Amino acid sequence: MDKMRPILVVDDVEAICTFICTVLQGNGYVHVDIAHDSAEVMSRVCRKKYQLILMDIKLPKVDGLELLSILHEEIPDAKIVMCSADTSEETINLAYEIGAVGFLEKPVTPMSLMSLLERL
User: Fold this and answer.
1) Cα(60)–Cα(49) distance, rounded to whole angstroms?
2) Which of 54, 59, 93, 118 fits a 20 to 30 Å CA distance from 65?
3) Cis preceding-peptide flag for 110 (omega within 30 of 0)
4) Model's pTM, two decimal places?
């Protein structure tokens, strides 16, 4: 992953966004933005091209999987990684079928996050 290209972290829990941003910035990723719901996500992706979107499945208003489907149609070349404590095979498979390029189990650890980024 290009450390100079922007990343968007999407979660309705501020502490999770802060933690992931801190890990990314501590590993040299310069441009990390945060969004807490679907409206913020859509507003941000209309203004900036993100190399990666890390997104929670459980979001207010529009579910993360539904938002993944919308984003996959609107910006098909975007790399989107879903994050969730729900690691059922059904949920993970659905995320990949819709268009996710990766899946992170919550709670996200610095090691799991950086390992995933190395594979993308």
Assistant:
1) 23
2) 118
3) no
4) 0.94
Q: End-to-end alpha-carbon separation of the chain, Å?
A: 7
What is the C-alpha separation between 41 and 31, in angstroms, rounded? 16
Write out pLDDT tens, residues 18-59: 999 999 999 999 999 999 999 999 999 999 999 999 999 999
Q: In sequence order, which residues have a C-beta less than 8 Å from that of residue 72 and are 6 or more positions away?
A: 78, 80, 98, 99
Residue ranges and CATH numbers for the domains of the chain are 7-119 (3.40.50.2300)
Contact indicator for 32, 58 with CB cutoff of 8 Å: no
What are the tokens at 23? Answer: 């890990």
What's the rounded Cα separation, in Å, for the pair 66 and 58? Answer: 10
- DSSP-derived letter for residue 104 is E
| Total number of residues shown for the chain | 120
Measured between alpha carbons, how far is 97 from 112 in angstroms, rounded to an integer? Answer: 22
Backbone angles phi, psi at 58, to 5 degrees: -90, 100
Residue 60: cis peptide before it, omega within 30 degrees of 0: no
